[in-house]
UniProtKB/TrEMBL annotation:
This is Exo-alpha-(1->6)-L-arabinopyranosidase. SMART domains: Fn3_like. It comes from Mycobacterium syngnathidarum. Belongs to the glycosyl hydrolase 3 family. The keyword Hydrolase applies. The keyword Hydrolase applies. Residues 570-640 form the Fibronectin type III-like domain.
């Protein structure tokens, strides 16, 4: 910004400090040439509150806006292009409703199914979350509305969310919890990032210079404004010094005065205040660069888009005997959610929909003249009678809004026992029973899947979900959604089971990088439904896998053939693994995905690019990402457990060459081709141990592997001197570099 164009050049310290906090619940301050802007939730619809009733808990009403599928549904599409279109529509609605920054996407990793806010997050996998989050940001910002990537970072539970510290090591942070944010920042350049409430390794996210400045700006190149979550700032001056630019909501000027006092006291410098004010001013320029005054939006077109997204989000979990799709015939529809659908989550993201599709009405539209009865299921006898007198039954099960929400976590993942009792009775009376599930967080499904021949997962589908469900039940749409989260058999199997929620103010991320399928698959634990799972009304065959290295990483190519009788879309997932890796890694991880739509008997090539970044691990020693040299396994499949083809590919890595020192172990030296020979000579000439057959019944060479070579001076009783060792290490290091 040149001085003449610099909107804060003429502002004094008090005015600059004032720019860095809200004027009201949802607005910033207009000061000098800097206009006020409006920020609001987000993410799956615009929650524009007007008048005096404002809150960040979804308590007060808001103006009508399209309620798209929340992230839990949207993620099941595995479709960045569709998510980008949803983002565009959200951007248009934001503009029409006078909103400049839409507070989303929420991309925190689903670490544990009990997190009350999982419905607002995409996945247990950072790549899937990152690709979808980036698409959302691109879409919203294409309409000159800013996104706010949240909640940065490691905010994976609601319990004690405003205080607790998420304690995780460097690899865990980099490879899982920061990775999604990194992908979105690098690929979509959001105009704001929202720092979370919690602490990270003891330091509040809002006061964390490493997080907000070193990593976010220094490493990832973020050039927007950091906004606080609503009420996340405990010490505004410390936060500003760490890299916070805008505290929300208003503090009535209290924290602005704190900033000015800190400058007077010499604990905060004026450049820091000016920097934050400059970034707020830059944000206002970005979001007002085109005319952002209210126009209308096309509610019909957006409802149709919400339906398309919901159709694509539905996952067919089970379909024994091809019970689905149903042909129009007498049907019993059971369950309250058929008439009062559960379609979004509770809390700050709660949207006032422009309209609402009722599943029962939509089902009736597709059954012609056939009778469709409905009962709530709270009286089991009536449900049984209805199911008996029909030719098939559809039972709606799931979680009520009160059972999961922003602000608190669940204590278990079970469906209410009364729902299972109902299902048992209905299936006994009517074997042709389909279950439709509505829920934000994962629920235990072994009992449901054991009883019902067909299970359709509707997660949360937004305002048009009712029509989309009917479309899938009757085959108007062939389902192609895929789980973005593993459904475990039991809560006790979950990776964070013993470390959730926080205890005495700390959450120990003891399972490290082994989150979701990384845990279940590496431990080879049985699950109810694996990550990436989802059936279709047709069948697909995979063939001709070819994997090659390219500059950017790997190129994966295969052929997919529709061998069934219906047109359908197949989501192809590419996983990689490195057997024999020098560090602990999951057996495989998602490294790319793609999709293809095929008519019966049609076949097409599918190409998936795997970025070199997605082969890397975070080296704590080197303080950077490292790609190991080795033979990587690449699998393509229809879930993390349905791997159809595999190939091996040799990758040349970029491991750092660290010089050997006296602290290097014999094992490390022997593993190095250059060092090995010299060390072997020393060992045989100077070791007091006979490294051949051992009288102790042990492999002495292996025992010695962990001995630092410097200790050989003492062990050899002076046969090897320290100087000799140093000369040898210097010569080895010289040959290696
Ligand atoms: C939530 C944010 C939300 C903000 C404003 C907070 O409670 O954590 O996601 O954007 O309120 O409503």
């Amino acid at each position: 910004m040149s001085d003449s164009a610099d909107p804060i050049a003429g502002l004094d310290l008090t005015e600059q400090a004032a720019l860095g906090s809200g004027a009201s619940f949802w607005t910033t301050k207009a000061i000098g040439p800097v206009p006020a802007i409006v920020l609001t939730d987000g993410p799956h619809g615009v929650r524009r509150q007007s008048g005096s009733a404002t809150d960040h808990l979804g308590l007060s009403g808001s103006e009508p806006a399209t309620c798209f599928p929340p992230a839990v549904g949207l993620s099941q599409t595995w479709d960045p292009e569709l998510v980008e279109r949803v983002g565009q529509a959200l951007g248009e609605e934001s503009r029409a409703l006078g909103v400049h920054v839409l507070l989303g996407p929420g991309v925190n990793i689903k670490r544990d199914p009990r997190c009350g806010r999982n419905f607002e997050y995409y996945s247990e996998d950072p790549l899937l979350s990152g690709k979808l989050g980036a698409a959302w940001v691109r879409g919203v910002q294409s309409r000159s509305v800013g996104a706010s990537l949240k909640h940065f970072a490691v905010n994976n539970a609601e319990h004690d969310r405003m205080r607790a510290s998420s304690d995780a090591d460097a690899r865990t942070l980099r490879e899982i919890y920061l990775r999604t944010f990194e992908i979105v920042v690098r690929q979509a350049r959001p105009w704001t990032v929202m720092c979370s409430y919690n602490r990270i390794n003891g330091v509040y996210a809002s006061e964390n210079p490493w997080l907000l400045t070193t990593v976010l700006r220094g490493e990832w190149g973020f050039d927007g404004a950091v906004v606080s979550d609503w009420g996340a700032v405990a010490d505004r001056a410390a936060a500003m010094a760490a890299g916070l630019d805008l505290e929300m909501p208003t503090t009535g000027g209290v924290s602005d005065a704190e900033v000015v006092r800190a400058v007077s006291a010499g604990t905060l410098d004026t450049a820091t205040v000016a920097r934050a004010a400059g970034r707020v001013a830059q944000l206002t320029q970005r979001v007002t660069q085109t005319d952002n005054t209210a126009t209308s939006f096309d509610a019909d077109a957006h409802h149709q888009l919400a339906r398309e997204a919901a159709q694509r989000a539905i996952v067919l979990l089970k379909n024994d005997g091809d019970l689905l799709p149903l042909a129009p015939s007498p049907l019993a529809v059971i369950g309250g959610f058929a008439q009062e659908p559960r379609y979004q989550g509770g809390g700050s993201s709660h949207v006032n929909p422009t309209r609402l599709d009722i599943p029962l009405d939509e089902i009736r539209k597709l059954t012609g003249d056939h009778p469709v009865s409905h009962c709530s299921g709270s009286d089991i006898a009536a449900a049984v009678a209805a199911a008996e007198s029909a030719e098939s039954a559809v039972v709606f099960l799931g979680l009520t809004a009160e059972e999961e929400s922003e602000g608190y976590d669940r204590e278990h993942i079970d469906l209410p026992e009364t729902q299972l009792e109902l299902l048992r009775a209905v299936v006994q009376a009517q074997p042709r029973t389909v279950v439709v599930l509505s829920h934000g967080g994962v629920v235990r499904l072994d009992a449901v899947a054991g009883l019902a021949p067909a299970v359709v997962d509707g997660a949360l589908l937004g305002q048009a979900g009712g029509g989309a469900l009917a479309d899938v039940l009757f085959g108007v749409v062939n389902p192609s959604g895929r789980l973005a989260e593993t459904v475990p058999l039991r809560l006790q199997d979950c990776p964070a089971y013993l470390n959730f929620p926080s205890e005495a103010g700390h959450t120990v991320y003891g399972e490290r990088m082994f989150v979701g399928y990384r845990w279940y698959d590496t431990r080879d634990l049985p699950v109810a439904f694996p990550f990436g799972h989802g059936l279709s009304y047709t069948r697909f065959e995979y063939s001709d896998l070819a994997v090659s290295t390219v500059d950017a990483g790997l190129s994966v190519r295969l052929t997919v053939t529709n061998t069934g009788t219906r047109s359908g879309r197949e989501v192809v997932q590419a996983y990689v693994g490195l057997p024999g890796s020098s560090v602990g890694r999951p057996v495989r991880w998602l490294a790319g995905f793609g999709a293809v739509t095929l008519e019966p008997a049609e076949q097409r090539a599918v190409e998936i690019s795997i970025s070199r970044d997605d082969l890397a691990y975070w080296s704590t020693d080197a303080g950077r990402w490292v790609v190991e040299t080795g033979e990587y396994a690449v699998w393509v499949g229809a879930s993390s457990r349905d791997l159809r083809l595999t190939a091996a590919v040799t990758v040349t890595g970029d491991e750092p060459t660290r010089p050997f020192t006296r602290d290097s172990t014999l094992g490390e030296l022997l593993a190095d081709p250059v060092a090995a020979q010299s060390i072997a000579d020393i060992l045989s000439s100077a070791s007091p141990f006979d490294t051949g057959d051992s009288a102790l019944g042990t492999n002495l060479l292996r025992m010695l592997e962990s001995v630092p070579i410097g200790r050989m001076v003492a062990f050899s009783a002076g046969k090897v001197t320290g100087e000799q060792l140093d000369r040898l290490l210097a010569s080895v290091n010289a040959q290696r570099s």
